[in-house]
Amino acid sequence: MTWYEPDADWTYADRRLIVSRCIVLWAFMIFIMADFLVFSFVFASPWIIGTFAALLLGLWFTWLIYRSVTAHAWAEREDDLIVKRGRMFRSVTVVPYGRMQFVEVSAGPLARAFGLATVQLHTASTGTDASLSGVKAADAETIRDRMTSRGEARLAGL
Amino acid sequence: MTFKEATNVVYSAPREWTRVHPVSPYLGSGPIFGFIAIYGIARITPSWVAGDSEEYQAINMLPPWVLVGLVVLAILAVIGFGVLSWTRNEYRIGDESMMLRKGILFRQNKQARLDRIEAVDVVQPLLARVFGLAKLTVSVAGGAGSGIDLSFLRLGDAEALRNEVLALAARAKMPDAVAGFPAPGTQGAGEVGYEAAAASASAPSLRDLAANVGVTHTTTAVPAAPERDVYAVPTGRLLLSVLFSTATVWLGIGALSLIVAALVFGSAVGEAILSVIGTSLFAFLAFIAAIGAYFWQQINGGFNFTASTSPDGLRLRHGLLETRRQTVTPGRVQAVLVRQPWLWKAKGWYRITMNVAGYTEDQEKVSTLLPVGTLEDVRLALSLVLPSATDDFLERAVVGTGAEDGFTPSPQRARLVDPFQWRQRGVRAGDAALLIRSGRWTRDLAVVPNERTQSLGVSQGPLQRLRHLASVEVHSTPGPVRPLAANMDLDTALDLLDQQADRATAGRGAGRV
So what's the ipTM on this one? Predict the structure, then answer.
């Protein structure tokens, strides 16, 4: 076994999340690159190296975003939800529905523009890292309702 | 007990809005401001009276009656503020919850559901203790700031209120027991768990009694549930244990090196040290105070430590100047950590800390189950909080290494990632609980009952992947215990994840909560 691959119906994060995250990344990176470009004109040309460094860094981060979004997936099993994330540092979290305290759906302006949302499951533990990123906005509500009803059916208190 | 007697008892938990003790506003942070103000005035007065400073000419320009008036006004304002905040600090008990409303400018309304109560503490800070008052802290599951603090009540009232709240809470949680689940902690394991089992077996009958009293005589107070002491920490052992700590060792090394330096280099060093102390006296005092505070915390928290069982739950009493009487309702301990610092090895002493869901603040003060104790104490303590998870493994479980005692150790491949602890790491999945041990010099054993597992996680970094390793974390409620089985064999870790998820489900099915 190389990694946790149970027989389950995995739902992968929506690819639009890559675009949405890249916009944030490149907004920042272009700002940095512009800074270095101005420096290179005002002071001396070696500053131009900074621009290229930022460009390379941005490309690398873009690659990382692509890799991490395509690795992020979740599956609703009968009794629990499994969330997997990451490639270099990978992790799997198993959350029994009965342990769910509440479910939170959130979406920032950019995510809304792309029709995406984040669904976060909260248990009594702060260590539970069970947030689903890149959920289609239309699905988010149904996931939330489904989780809530399953949680109530299997409620175990603390 | 006859009900006739009970009706004569004066105090019962208020169903109407009731105020706390009138002295309360002056016992909190008020006195500190008072002392600061008095200190400030005392500093100014001499030079003002002497009249030799021009700074205070402005004061002299005011006529005396204005000065007197200002002082009177200040006193009135303090009293008025106290009275106002006292009238705006009220609590009551409802059918389903306990309610508190307080605040002058920013009003605060709080509700603590009775069936969600995890623990009820009676705390007496030094000043309150002088006046025979106490603070009642009700902790509920629901994150930081969700509990209710009643400060201050008369000690007797606070205790009576605690008893009644606990009885009501037990009744509010009753439907679960009626639905066919066994009361938590009734399956005591072997000899060790016997006493705890006996205590909880008697619980339902006493609960019924308390519940009946509540129903038929709503005006009677609920008597304290009978307590039975299980273990206590002798003062001598506590003081020794504080002495046998890493902090003492460092302090000793520091003092020794100073002495050695003074001997080798003569009086020059002594003068240098004195001049450092002289120039930065404040920093030096702060340093001394910090060291003192550390030792004080250890001694005050563990002083007179007594643990007992009662139908209301686990009772812990401790404290030297600030005393605390905790009651953790049955089955609310989420995880425990048995720890042996390296200096305690020779003595065979252990410390136990625990996670309780409602305790979100002052972890250091409230999360200690046993400040320092022998293996026998550890056994008793665990039988109190996890009766089903105790068996004869303990002897070796804390001190063992590798594959001893049915533990699954980390493979030798883990050495690269984990050079110090890999030999001590191990996991044992029992029917009742998951045991995780670790620590090269400070030995740790984390115990998480299967049915208390919140969620599970497995993670792997690049180095771990290289070595075919993974770490499994059991998520527990916030507290001092963070159970992590690091650097296990990957296949073992994944099996553990699957099986533990099943065991957790099975455990929850068998016994609620």
Answer: 0.87
